[in-house]
Amino acid sequence: MWLIIGLIAGAAVLGLVLWMQSKDVAVKWYEWLIGALGLMLLLFTIQNFAGSLAELESTAANMFLLVSGLPAIILLAVSWQLVARRQRAG
Amino acid sequence: MSKYHTTVSRRNFMKGLGLAGAGLGAAAATAPVFHDLDELSSSYTNFKYPWWIKEVDEPTVPLDWSLIDMRLPFSRYRTSNPTSANRKARMTASMKQGVEGSRLKDYALARSVTSVSPSREAAPWDGPKPYFDIADYGVAPHSGTPEENLHMVRAAMHYFGAPRLGCAEIDPSTNRKLYGSGIQWDSNEAIAHEDPVSGDKVIPKAAKYNLCWPVLQQPQISRNTKEPVVGGPIDGYPPFLGKASVYTGYSDVACIKFKLGKFLKNLGYQALNLGGLPVAFGPLQVAEYGRAGQACSPEFGMAIRKTDTLVTDLPLAETKPIDGGVHKFCEVCFRCGENCPSSSIDESSGPCSTPGELFSVDGTPINRNSGVLSWRVNWKGCVDYGAPVDCHICQWSCPFNHASDPSTIHKVVAASIGTTTIFNSFFANMDRFFDYATQRSADDWWNRDLSTWEHDTICGRGTGRPI
Lengths: 90, 467
Hints:
The structure holds 2 protein chains of 2 kinds. By secondary structure, chain A is mostly helical. Chain A has helices at residues 2-22, 29-54, 58-89. In chain B, the strands form 5 sheets. Chain B has a 4-stranded antiparallel β-sheet with strand order 2-6-10-7.
């Protein structure tokens, strides 16, 4: 399962990078960092959500969605918006 | 517009190839290099603890060997409560009324795994008979270096069902005291036997290697016996179904020891079951000591039925006590104590406030833990309630029970606990906040999906997960 998730994540990141290059979208180093942290947190959330369900800990699984999933979404959104707004501005 | 169909330029392609090659090269550079098979075999070990569990010279629980006295009973306290009669009444009523978790089928299951063990005749104290006598084959007893022998026995024990193995030489000033009386040590005779006059066990000098291993219990079925029921015929007591893991544990204890004994005897060595208090050996070799007065492992928590022992004359390398941060974590955790229905677990925060003090009832000591300078259980409260038969809630409450479970967070937490104490309170609170190890319904267990359930021991197929 993690091989497939890794392949998908790798392909998605590569696709995103190539698309941004084709559109001449510049990304600052801190925007990369925030996005990378968001992605790692998202993968962490997925693993712990699935692992908690395997452990029959449904409450813990839902708590992971809230405690780490939500921050992951926020970080990814922040990274996206930083890039998008700078593109629109200039 | 480019006439090429790919969006990756030749420059970027070669850059990518170069990066991949550099990565492979770095990985190869960090890998061990062996020049020949001898070098490979000498450095290989079939077991290593995770990096956050350190092997230390002294156990994490402070011990005063001058105070350890195994002649005192484990618990001298005998309750005046009619616990057996009460238990029978509860059991009768709950079966007749069909209380979930304490119905006839629940009791039948939990007690079906009780005493599944070799008979006393098949497993005497000096070990079971070997399956074959090597003398009949003209073969000498197995020989190997102590390290090779430990490697071999560990591999065998993992197959028998014990995931960890420790070994310590028996020292008259320390761990020999854990075996109590009725033993004559350091005999010049080659074979252990019973003294015909005194009945003492006579132990040869060469039989100085004490093996110790944890026998685990299955926490998932135990969650059916996690919280006291409110109301009804078993009001204030947990349902019974989950006790199956306790009784399976006892049966596994006997069977694993029998298999180990036979293995050692087949090799041409002795396997001596000398009793003693295994829960005291555990913290010396394969676990730590927890607040509930039990062995507690940084990998398996308190879901350990017993840290069992056997003495042999097969030369074995020694292992060291381990430190995974458990004893320090217990200072701030108290999950076992807050779930104890009889409030019998020491509530003092921080280290034990009365180290070395024996627990007494009316001035009479009721345990022999004075040399263990750490928390102890109020056996009066525990036994008056009806434990240990009626309750093992403390065991199922320990956060370390899920240290080896699939979610990566457990490894992160365990690694942190094993490295520093500054987050211990936070982690204990997170265990509560995330509501780990809550009570499960017995019907959930009876209706589990057998095609995906991975928590039963399937003979011949292992656990499905490395451990």
